[in-house]
Amino acid sequence: MQVARILQWVCRGCTARGMANVHMELTSAFLTDQPSKRFPEMDYLTFFLAILHVYRALCEEMFWDTTVKLAENMSLQCIYSSLDTLTQMEWFKINTTSRELIAIFSPIYGGVVKQPYTYRVYLLNSTAAPNDMTLYFHNASEADIGFYSCFLHTFPHGHWEKVIQVVASDSFEIAAPSNRHIVSEPGKNVTLTCQPAGKWPVQQVTWEKIQPHQIDILTICNLSQGKSYASKYQREIWSSCSQDMRSTFIIMPHVTASDSGLYRCCFKASTGDSETFVMRLTVTDGKTDNQYILFVAGGAVLLLLLVILITTIIVISYKRRRRQKELFKESWGAQNKVSFLRAVICPLFCIIISCNVGPFCSQQPYCSPFNYLAM
């Protein structure tokens, strides 16, 4: 009876998956090779060491759905995708021995933020997105690093919980460059596959979606047991999980533009070996395509008009220069003819007719006999 009470006290805020291991740890610590005594007479040093042992087991079994990078203004996303009716929601910070209530929300009575988070934390629940229970932090600090629980009470399926881990920015893992690029249209079913190159036996496969500020676990497959864990990701994911499988895949039905991004699959073996693949998914948006087509068409029309304008200017300039050359040639030819008449033909003609005949020659200076003799 005392062990059960200690178990209940220690495991407040513990994940359900770790309860069995904690129970075994306590049973081993208190019941194995122990005389039949009442709890108050137990050696307190043994009790303290046993509690430390239990905490180690708890930490090893802690599981989270999302990892968020600490930032001054950050958001802990919690979106409930089911159609169940929400009756109440609570945000907790998971401490070592208990859960600290941060905020509580009721669709009927509204939301309340507890001290010391008042004026630093807020909810933006609205009728437009009643299933969005995202928690927003303002002026966050290193004291906010840790685990958080978004705990929802729903009808008729009961409670629903998402665990989020907040880590320091230098501890946030950055995704490697993508190995493959997949492009899809909206509304299609997209399948992402990967297969390890190593021949070692795979023990666990994890699929994640990588974003600059957070990493969401999509699914975890334990191949040794042939069981998978589907995380609390806000969209539906289909996955494969069976013993001795050599490749893995996930299917995202009816993809949208919000599904674009980096996806990572990680293989882990019992020997400690691991292998990671990163792929990029791009879901084109129909509106974006139309805008792009209009932009390209408009650019092509403007380019065509510019080419026509430049061609017209070149043709007009060429014709103008050609006309100027023709006019110059005509003017030059006329001047040469007049000069030739004045210099050669007219004097000879005037000499022949004694410069007294013809009104043209009589008006020329070359037609004067004195002028001509003076030459």
Automatic annotation (TrEMBL):
The chain crosses the membrane at residues 292-318, 339-360. GO terms for cellular component: external side of plasma membrane. It is found in: Cell membrane. GO terms for biological process: cell adhesion; natural killer cell mediated cytotoxicity; positive regulation of Fc receptor mediated stimulatory signaling pathway; positive regulation of immunoglobulin mediated immune response; positive regulation of mast cell activation; positive regulation of natural killer cell cytokine production; positive regulation of natural killer cell mediated cytotoxicity directed against tumor cell target; positive regulation of T cell receptor signaling pathway. Keywords: Cell adhesion, Cell membrane, Disulfide bond, Glycoprotein, Immunoglobulin domain, Membrane, Phosphoprotein, Receptor, Repeat, Signal, Transmembrane, Transmembrane helix. Pfam families: V-set. It is a single-pass type I membrane protein. It comes from Canis lupus familiaris. Interacts with PVR and NECTIN2. Competes with PVRIG for NECTIN2-binding. Interacts with ITGAL; this interaction mediates CD226 localization to lipid rafts. The keyword Cell inner membrane does not apply. The lineage of its organism: Eukaryota, Metazoa, Chordata, Craniata, Vertebrata. One of its GO terms (molecular function) is integrin binding. This is CD226 antigen. Residues 40-150, 177-284 form the Ig-like domain. Cell surface receptor that plays an important role in the immune system, particularly in intercellular adhesion, lymphocyte signaling, cytotoxicity and lymphokine secretion mediated by cytotoxic T-cells and NK cells. Functions as a costimulatory receptor upon recognition of target cells, such as virus-infected or tumor cells. Upon binding to its ligands PVR/CD155 or NECTIN2/CD112 on target cells, promotes the cytotoxic activity of NK cells and CTLs, enhancing their ability to kill these cells. Its main location: membrane. Coiled coil: none annotated.
